[in-house]
Design a protein that fits this description.
InterPro entries: Endo/exonu/phosph_ase_sf. It comes from Hibiscus trionum (Flower of an hour). This is Reverse transcriptase. With 274 residues, the chain is an alpha+beta fold. It has two domains: 163 residues, 4-Layer Sandwich (Deoxyribonuclease I, Chain A); 91 residues. The chain contains seven helices and twelve strands. The chain has a six-stranded mixed β-sheet, with helices on one face. Strands 5-6 form a two-stranded antiparallel ribbon. Strand 1, helix 1 and strand 2 form a beta-alpha-beta unit. The longest helix is centred in the last third of the chain and has 38 residues. 20% of the residues are buried.
C-alpha cells in the first residue's frame, strides 16, 4: 500500500491540478491526503474524481485558507471516524489497535533533508523539515519494511511525502492499449513516421491502417521512454541541487530545472487529458 501526504498550497489553477494528477498516476497510489487545498469540498471532490479516486472525504477551505482532502481507491478498506477543519481521522482495514496508542515517533525519511523551502536568493532562502511521518510501536510492527520518501516537485513550497508500507512489494504491471493521441502531433517526428509507414505498407487500406497503428505504438513507446527519462533526469538533478549549499547560483539552477521539468510535465499532462 502506498500513501501520499502533501501540503499543496492551493489547487485553484488547472495546471496545478494537472501536476497533482500526474504525480498520483506516476506513484500508483492507494490513498492520498492533501493539506491546504484552498478549495470548497465540492470543487475538491471533482478534482479527486478526475485524479481517479472514487472515494474520499473533503473539508472546505475557510475563505482562502486551509482545506483538507483524503481520497482512496476501491481496493482500499477505509472507514471515516471523524473530521474537522484541522484533521481527518480514518481507520484503514482493521488496524484499530494501532490507533489506540499515542506514543508516536519520527519514522525517518529518504531523500532531501528538508520538506519546505522559501526564497530564491541565498540571503533569503529558508529550508525546514516541517512535514514528517510519525508512528507508534504497534505500527512499526505491522509495517517493518516501510519507507517514507521526500519526493521532488516543481510547485508548492512543500514537497510530497510518499509512504510505502511494503517497500519490497510488487505493484504489478500496467497494460498499454493503442489509440491515437492529440499530444503526438506536438512531436516533430510524428508526421514523417506516419508517412513512412503508410508508403511502405502495400495497397490494402486495412493493412495500411493496421501497420500505421502498430508503427505508431512502437514509435510512441520510444518517445514516452525518452520523455520519462528526461523527467527522471530532471528529478535527479533537483535531488543533487537540493543537497548543495543554497548560494545564488545553485538556487538559480533549481529554478531553471523546475521550469524545464514543468515543460516536460506539460507534455505528459496533455497526453493524460485525452
Amino acid at each position: 500500500m502506498k500513501i501520499l501526504s502533501w501540503n499543496v498550497q492551493g489547487l485553484g489553477q488547472p495546471r496545478t491540478v494537472g501536476r497533482l494528477n500526474q504525480k498520483l498516476r506516476d506513484e500508483n497510489l492507494c490513498i492520498f491526503f492533501l493539506i491546504k487545498t484552498k478549495l470548497t469540498a465540492g470543487r475538491m471532490a471533482k478534482v479527486q474524481k478526475r485524479c481517479g479516486f472514487p472515494n474520499g472525504i473533503d473539508v472546505d477551505a475557510v475563505g482562502r485558507r486551509g482545506g483538507l482532502s483524503m481520497g482512496w481507491k476501491n481496493s482500499c478498506d477505509v472507514t471515516l471516524r471523524s473530521y474537522s477543519v484541522r484533521h481527518i481521522d480514518v481507520v484503514i482495514k482493521d488496524d484499530t489497535a494501532a490507533l489506540e496508542e499515542c506514543a508516536l515517533d519520527d519514522i525517518g525519511y529518504l531523500g532531501s533533508w528538508f520538506t519546505w523551502e522559501k526564497g530564491r536568493r541565498e540571503q533569503s532562502n529558508m529550508r525546514l523539515r516541517l512535514d514528517r511521518g510519525v508512528a507508534n510501536n504497534a505500527w512499526w510492527s505491522l509495517f517493518p519494511s516501510f519507507k517514507l520518501q521526500h519526493l521532488q516537485h516543481s510547485f508548492s513550497d512543500h514537497c510530497p511525502l510518499l509512504l510505502h508500507t511494503n517497500s519490497s512489494g510488487n505493484t504489478g504491471n500496467r497494460v498499454w492499449h493503442f489509440r491515437f493521441e492529440a499530444s503526438w502531433l506536438l512531436e516533430s517526428s510524428c508526421e514523417a513516421t506516419v508517412s513512412d509507414i503508410w508508403q511502405s505498407s502495400g495497397d490494402n487500406l486495412l493493412e495500411k491502417l493496421s501497420q500505421v497503428s502498430k508503427g505508431l505504438d512502437k514509435w510512441f513507446r520510444k518517445i514516452r521512454w525518452e520523455r520519462n527519462l528526461s523527467v527522471h533526469d530532471l528529478n535527479q538533478k533537483l535531488v543533487q541541487l537540493n543537497e548543495l549549499h543554497p548560494i545564488d547560483g545553485v538556487l538559480g539552477d533549481i529554478v531553471e530545472t523546475k521550469f524545464a521539468l514543468n515543460l516536460e510535465l506539460d507534455k505528459k499532462e496533455l497526453y493524460w487529458e485525452q
